[in-house]
């Protein structure tokens, strides 16, 4: 039993990870092309961060939180900032593809590395599905605007059409006129009604989402230089459009719309956590490019911080402009940027925004489709996945098999799933990765000799959290009692039985971790930044609800089955250690 547990925590040091990478490159010819500079990495980060979040989900977040959602962007950026510093240290120390998976292998060991790798596969796949669906919505709207309408059953997912049809039937049965139904419900009803059937199965599928996924997958397949040029061009284009939106929109801002600033209180602001955080997950993708950077130890840390700062400023300003142009309640739409300009009779600007959204979300899909195959590739190199995933195309120098699999994994679900089903699950997976990366830095600090010996680049600034963290926790508690007393009373109430209690479990777990980490910080003088990163991201996870936690844990459970059925015995580290023991 002790050997079994020891095997689960077998670790690859930073030195070993770099040595294995170099050996694979020299012996098997798996080297990728080093073509990315700092400006390219910053562009990749902006491409991934500014997309569906800024053109779509920001609307629902603003409708729930009002102008105060701008504070949520700042809070989320701070949480991501703590994580970005931790990512930056790992990326500088271990400039190998694999992102948080590789970092976990160096700090926590193989089992946790597998869990986070499996989590990242879900995060990227579902994130890409969400972006493809959102892209399809904007593309369909633009086509309708120029008179080229496709049948509804070819532009809508199966779930949305089915739900809209049955919801409409209920309302129509009660005597409500069809013309008074919500627009999206009317579209879903018509899609379901007019769709051809095959053996009783309605053929409703989102073909624009499929098409853009196939196109982007092909672009990623043929090489990093082509992907880099495309990403840089798309980023420049959408930044110009966003600056246009901010500049023109500022003239239509009414400060009366900013009062009250937080109409639904802290609960309303935090309701947008999933939508807002979904906008920030892109900087994680920068770390997957490590093996294609000219100078990863210098450029990766800078690119992460630069991209995060630039995008946060744009998000905050844009949120204030949107909520200033129209009352916040009107922003619960799928295309908020285009909507606000239509609302003030600037249809030409609305059209430009709609077209630019297509460009913006295509760039997000490009970066995410680029990042995921490299995680498959790295896990395959370690023997945790079949070797086919680490095969490099002899001409294009890309992990071609992993790229094709990624395209299929994204394209097929995008045909049938809707945006609501996927964004929350993406956010919880990303937050989990951030928590483990921050925790990994804390573990490496416990191994100072190795960290010092192998580290040559960026390091998270050390601030002793011994006294600072307890003070911050105390201040947070005081503020909660001061501004959120009613919700705290509800939380500590024992009424409602299990149905009510189960939704409190994530927050109870967070409170327990906070207490434990505060004690450890006091006793061991832990570094404040990774501790705060761990706690803030863990708190954001508690805001995503028990349903998403259940789905997330079910996914991780499936991953453990695969690991013990294949990865545990085929691990190269396992075989190497077994050979040494023999």
From TrEMBL:
Presence of keyword Transmembrane helix: yes
Entry membrane topology: Multi-pass membrane protein
Keywords: Membrane, Transmembrane, Transmembrane helix, Transport
Domain Cationic amino acid transporter C-terminal: 528-571
Lineage of source species: Bacteria, Pseudomonadati, Bacteroidota, Cytophagia, Cytophagales
Keyword Disulfide bond listed: no
Subcellular location(s) per record: Membrane
Protein's UniProt name: Amino acid permease
GO molecular function annotations of the record: amino acid transmembrane transporter activity
Cellular component terms (Gene Ontology): membrane
Chief location category: membrane
Transmembrane segments: 41-63, 69-88, 203-221, 233-253, 265-283, 304-328, 348-371, 400-419, 425-444, 465-485, 505-522, 529-546, 552-568
């Amino acid at each position: 039993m002790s050997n079994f547990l020891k095997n689960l925590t077998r670790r690859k040091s930073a030195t070993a990870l770099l040595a294995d990478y170099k050996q694979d490159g020299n012996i098997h010819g798996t080297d990728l092309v080093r073509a990315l500079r700092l400006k390219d990495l910053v562009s990749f980060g902006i491409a991934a961060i500014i997309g569906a979040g800024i053109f779509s989900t920001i609307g629902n977040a603003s409708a729930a939180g009002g102008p105060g959602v701008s504070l949520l962007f700042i809070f989320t950026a701070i949480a991501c900032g703590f994580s970005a510093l931790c990512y930056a240290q790992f990326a500088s120390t271990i400039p190998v593809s694999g992102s948080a998976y590789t970092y976990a292998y160096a700090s926590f060991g193989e089992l946790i590395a597998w869990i986070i790798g499996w989590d990242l596969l879900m995060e990227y796949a579902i994130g890409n599905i969400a972006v493809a669906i959102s892209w399809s919505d904007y593309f369909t709207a633009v086509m309708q605007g120029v008179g080229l309408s496709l049948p509804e059953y070819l532009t809508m997912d199966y779930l949305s059409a089915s739900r809209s049809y049955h919801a409409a039937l209920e309302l129509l049965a009660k005597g409500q006129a069809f013309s008074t139904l919500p627009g999206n419900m009317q579209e879903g009803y018509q899609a379901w009604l007019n769709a051809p059937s095959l053996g009783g199965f309605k053929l409703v599928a989102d073909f624009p989402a499929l098409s853009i996924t196939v196109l982007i997958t092909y672009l990623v397949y043929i090489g990093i230089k082509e992907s880099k040029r495309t990403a840089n061009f798309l980023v420049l284009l959408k930044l110009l459009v966003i600056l246009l939106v901010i500049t023109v929109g500022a003239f239509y801002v009414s400060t009366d719309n900013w009062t009250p600033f937080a109409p639904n209180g802290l609960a309303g602001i935090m309701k947008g956590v999933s939508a807002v955080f979904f906008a920030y997950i892109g900087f994680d993708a920068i770390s997957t490019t490590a093996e294609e950077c000219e100078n990863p130890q210098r450029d990766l840390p800078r690119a992460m911080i630069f991209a995060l700062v630039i995008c946060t400023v744009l998000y905050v300003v844009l949120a204030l402009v949107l909520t200033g142009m129209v009352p916040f309640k009107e922003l619960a739409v799928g295309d908020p940027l285009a909507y606000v300009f239509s609302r003030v009779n600037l249809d030409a600007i609305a059209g430009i925004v709609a077209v630019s959204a297509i460009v913006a979300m295509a760039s997000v899909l490009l970066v995410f489709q680029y990042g995921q195959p490299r995680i498959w590739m790295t896990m395959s190199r370690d023997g945790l996945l079949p070797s086919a995933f680490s095969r490099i195309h002899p001409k294009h120098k890309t992990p071609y098999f992993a790229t094709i699999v990624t395209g299929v994994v994204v394209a097929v679900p995008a045909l049938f799933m809707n945006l609501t089903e996927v964004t929350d699950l993406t956010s919880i997976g990303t937050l989990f990765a951030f928590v483990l990366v921050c925790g990994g830095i804390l573990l490496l600090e416990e191994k100072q000799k190795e960290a010092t010996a192998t580290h040559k680049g960026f390091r998270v600034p050390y601030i002793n959290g011994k006294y600072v963290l307890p003070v911050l926790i105390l201040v947070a508690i005081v503020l909660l009692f001061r501004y959120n007393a009613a919700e705290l009373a509800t939380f500590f109430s024992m009424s409602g039985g299990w149905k009510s209690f189960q939704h409190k479990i994530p927050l109870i777990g967070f409170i327990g971790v906070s207490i434990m980490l505060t004690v450890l910080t006091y006793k061991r003088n832990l570094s404040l930044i990774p501790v705060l990163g761990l706690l803030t991201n863990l708190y954001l996870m508690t805001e995503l609800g028990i349903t998403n936690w259940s789905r997330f844990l079910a996914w991780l459970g499936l991953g453990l089955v695969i690991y013990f059925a294949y990865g545990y015995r085929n691990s190269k580290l396992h075989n190497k250690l077994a050979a040494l023991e023999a």
